Write the structure tokens for this entry.
Amino acid sequence: MSQNNFTNYGTANNYDSRDLSVEFAEADARISFITKTYLYVLGSIFALIGIEFVLLNTVNAEGLIQLMVQSRLSWIVVLILFMGVSALANYWANNSTSSAMQHLGLGLYIAAQSIILLPLLWLAIYFSGQGTNLIMSAGIATGGLFTLMTLAVFLTRTDFSFLRVILFFGGFVLLGAIIFCPVFGFSIGPILMYFGIALACGYILYYTSNILHHYRTTQHVAAALALFASIVLLFWYVLQLFMASQSD
């Protein structure tokens, strides 16, 4: 599931003009950028929730899920398509000349996430015996971890750009496990879930510090997409961990 961060990974480094970066911008521009970024993140989360509600309640979600996961190969194809769409969405969101293209990229990414999350949400609701309670608990835990990571950056003002290489290789390890574990019949165990949670927290630290230090003040859409992707990645593994604990 970390493939969503591969596609936006490193985009915060598209800043060459110091006078345009958040760290060196005027206070009003800096505050406006940060406010817009987090409003877009919040809006993206609510949009994702709304789309998932529609998919789970008004369409043949079970048929769509069966099509996606009917075989190991079909799920790998879905992941590859998701990576491709995510890359395109991230490219559009980082378009420096067209605001419409930036928003289209963010919208496309939200739609792609709603599809890739659907099977996991379906399992959590209908096979855990907890209904939506498990999803709500995972959402609260995700929000708590996100808040802690955000406060760690905002209170210390630390630049976590040194995590870039670690996250890059950690993401490849996680992506490889996601793709090859099903192929060879291995299940994704708790160790990998904890690794995914730790990696997602690292992404949140990294992108939050980029929001404070490195993004240009016109890149609020791209910044929101990167942070939103990290939050969804965190939720993905927190929910899996909660589901695994329920089945024990």
In short: DSSP finds nine helices and no strands in the chain. The radius of gyration is 18 Å. The mean pLDDT is 84. The longest helix spans residues 27-58.
